[in-house]
Design goal:
354 residues; alpha/beta; 9 helices; six-stranded mixed β-sheet
Length: 354
Amino acid sequence: MLSRLVLTDFRNHADAVIAPGPGFVVLTGENGVGKTNILEAVSLLAPGRGLRRAALADMARQGGAGGFGVAARLGDGVDIATGTQAAAPDRRIVRVQGAGTAATALAEWLSVLWLTPAMDRLFVEPAAERRRFLDRLTLALAPGHAVHANRYEAAMRARNRLLGEDSPPDAPWLAALEAQMAEHGAAIDSARRQTVVLLADMLRDQVAGPFARAGLVLEGWGGAADRLAADLAAGRRRDAAAGRTLIGPHRTDLAVTHLDKAQAAALCSTGEQKALLLGIVLAHADLVAARTGHAPVLLLDEVAAHLDPRRRAALFERLAGRGQIWMTGTETALFDDVPGEATRLTLQGGQICQ
């Protein structure tokens, strides 16, 4: 959890300081005042590009000095921070306890999960979106997953360039790149499949309630490192003709079904898809807490507005006592049923009011 959050020239926030409590953090205000910007700032305290996947240069406040900063103190007293400098607006800086480190190291200190309106179409979007979603879930259980993903992607890009050259590729160098892809690809596949199995078991055992139960299966390539290395070597001519690598964990897909209807999520109604997605995120938060002993920070953007009063009350009851949950909404009345103590903040004109 976060005990303090400081934003400097981030989006529309010139200078903002928030001292959230350990439970619900409710941000309300009109559209465009910067509620989602605060959630995005929190999401940057984990590896990756944040909940909007925006370019770093776009996050700096217009009219500001050119860079931005997001700093936080965690509940155990550890200070983490990220941001950019005006001289290098596209280069991310990450610090833990004041010392520079790689962004992937943030996974060792904080798990952050989010649900935004932009994710409502997850089940009908291309497979890459579901892989990205699964990787975020996996990262909360296996902090080293981000390192494997980055190194796999780097090796694959180098291999694709080598295969695309007019002259015959350097065979030893090609084999070395494929060995790197095999090593990290097998680790990626193993971590993803373990996450899917654990989460699917948890969802299957849940009693049917206001949130739909999802069935999860990872489809596509899977196997050990030696198998992937052999498949890559055998597919060089095919991949060269295609201009890309056609086999590996970057081609898998997360298949989701509505268990109680035995129907593919992509064929469910918009409301059912929202309920399935919410159910997955909630179950995963419970799984992370059970496996690691630390509840992840949850960021739920405009989630209450899309639920009827019964499901809204059920959501608050389900979340109570399960760590720090940040929620946004345009109306304070949406959060009247939030149980217990909550940090309630109203945003007006880019300013945060207690």
